[in-house]
Amino acid sequence: MLNQLTLLTLLGSMVYALPSIQEIKRDSGTYANCRTFYSDIYAETTQNSDLKSVIGGPPPNQQVLVESSIQQFAAGSMVMNQIMNATKIQVSGSYSLWFEYCEPKSGNSTGLFQTHHGLVGNAGYWNVQLDNSPNNSFAESAAQAGWSTLSYDRLGVGRSAKPDGTNIVQIPFEIAQSVSIAKSIRSGNLSDIGKFDKIIGVGHSYGSNLLAGLVSISPSSFDALILTGFTNNATQGPLGLFSFQSTIANVAYPSRFSTDLNDYVITPNMYVDQTGFFHYPNYTNTSLSTFTNTKGEYTLGQQNSISAALQLKNNYTSPVFVVTGEFDAPYCAANCYITSLTSSSNSTGNSNSNSTSSSMNKPSQLDTAKEVFPSSTNFQTYVVPDTAHGINYHTTAYDAYSKIIQFVKNANI
């Protein structure tokens, strides 16, 4: 999985946002008032890849997809090299995205967290409601600390638009969309949420990769980055993306995804979800089933472009905080403290005096992310104990959120 690709230069990307439309509902939590809306987001990039020239269009059936996956991940396969060298294509357009905005009940907000979920996720990952408690909701913890949160179903997911899942819905175009959203927020043109001068980019997994690429072309979009479920050492082998057992979404869950084309895929069952996202027994009885029943689809375009940003060396100087579960499978091979898997022999060391490693100054694979952000003047990591990739569904979620809030406060953002 995630064989590293030559990074896209996204400097030619241009981004814009159109006025938002159709507010859907308003509701409240313990600390936050939340509302949802749709907005048409325009973006363009010249850095998508012509993946159809390599993997073809949507597979006609699941057996074809399975065989294609085997051929892609087989020993000696050249498919990833072919993807890396695929012709770049221009993609542009305005697409409807579904948003959830949560603000403190007090009405006073210090700033905004703009979140980006990962594969198999959706906007709900940032506002998890479990067991009548706000402790699994990042939006609730943010509101309790006086911050607002804007989450959205990324392009191709859930209630957002679902265009060509091979050549359009890829990470370069989604990077351009995120820049567009941030610009619209700073100018006060996104729905009725108002204008924010402080915006922190928050990502999980694919969403963290997205942010790593974004700040190379638009470092001013975010005043800091919070990257969860992330390292610069994405797992190869049985615990990598192949373990997701990508299944055509309308085959795996026909009642939920009957209208999705065959290049929209998903994990096929609860036990695959456990392998990729959970550490037993550090979650409640309802957590795993809730995750499976509400998870989102992803596209073959996303699956085959996710690793592009991991090669990026950029000049982003603002604070970066990497928060990853101790037993993260996709990014740590299920043990973040085994540093022999790191991408370079010196990756557990930090030359920057303002860098802090792990939860107890213990080297971990999270330190490899420093390679992506060599210019950050405040780079820190935290390994969430007894936790896997899906941090927000574990009983340790509130601890992770508390560390994030404290990092933001200490950074004086």
From TrEMBL:
<protein>
    <recommendedName>
        <fullName>AB hydrolase-1 domain-containing protein</fullName>
    </recommendedName>
</protein>
<dbReference type="InterPro" id="IPR000073">
    <property type="entry name" value="AB_hydrolase_1"/>
</dbReference>
<keyword id="KW-0732">Signal</keyword>
<dbReference type="InterPro" id="IPR029058">
    <property type="entry name" value="AB_hydrolase_fold"/>
</dbReference>
<feature type="compositionally biased region" description="Low complexity">
    <location>
        <begin position="342"/>
        <end position="359"/>
    </location>
</feature>
<feature type="region of interest" description="Disordered">
    <location>
        <begin position="342"/>
        <end position="367"/>
    </location>
</feature>
<feature type="signal peptide">
    <location>
        <begin position="1"/>
        <end position="17"/>
    </location>
</feature>
<dbReference type="Pfam" id="PF00561">
    <property type="entry name" value="Abhydrolase_1"/>
</dbReference>
<feature type="domain" description="AB hydrolase-1">
    <location>
        <begin position="116"/>
        <end position="328"/>
    </location>
</feature>
